[in-house]
Design brief:
mainly alpha
């Protein structure tokens, strides 16, 4: 009888865990679908390879913009220095 009670307890624990896991899986599926829908709405795709390519393109443009800005600052500083040296 003790063995049967132990088996029932273990079975109940496993059933509870199964229900919990199924609920968690359903929640994760909903969140994934929502995230994919947001990605499509914002970026036109939910394909992770395409999204990563977009990220790399944006990083490249940002790096170029930063470089251009640094160059402009350097030119402005050089022009200001030239003005200060003038009599």
């Amino acid at each position: 009888m003790k063995l049967l009670d132990d088996l029932r307890r273990r079975h109940d624990a496993l059933r509870t865990q199964l229900i919990r896991n199924q609920s968690e899986n359903e929640r994760a599926d909903r969140e994934l679908a929502e995230a994919e829908a947001r990605a499509v709405a914002q970026f036109g795709t939910s394909d992770t390879t395409k999204l990563m390519a977009m990220v790399e393109e944006i990083r490249g443009r940002n790096a170029q913009a930063l470089s251009d800005f640094a160059e402009q600052i350097g030119q402005i500083e050089a022009e200001l220095q030239a003005l200060e040296v003038r009599p």
